[in-house]
Design goal:
alpha+beta; Nuclear Transport Factor 2, Chain: A; 6 helices
Amino acid sequence: MGPLPQRTAMNMREMVAVAAIGLWAVVALPSGTSAGELVVAEADRAAIEAVIRHQLDALRRDDGLAAFSDASPGVQERFGSAKIFLQMVREAYAPVYRPRQVQFMDLKIVRGLPVQKVFVVGPAHQRWFAFYPMRLDKEGFWRIDGCYLILTEDSST
């Protein structure tokens, strides 16, 4: 059997990413609630967009402390320091580290948590979707609980 056609390979990559987005959410829907019933208040939508914008701006300035402060406690624990976090983003997340364009898209509830979809054009002019799962911290502020990048099908290579 020969190599997979490009279209099939892209669809498989998208399926893996969608599965990953579902796996990170370990919190189940509240008892007696269906996914269609969960909505995000406009104030929360604005706060979620603001924290993602703040982190993107901090990354553009190489302000690791500010970018790290927008991460959830779980992400902060995983990386341990702003310096290590910034190094990881610089090496593995170029599209959000140095985006040429950012456009906020839909926000959906996935397994009880809001996930913000953001379209970004990376430094190499490739087009990406960045999916940001969000969590409320103990003080009631939205924090970024990860970022999953998917290269779009119409991306220039």
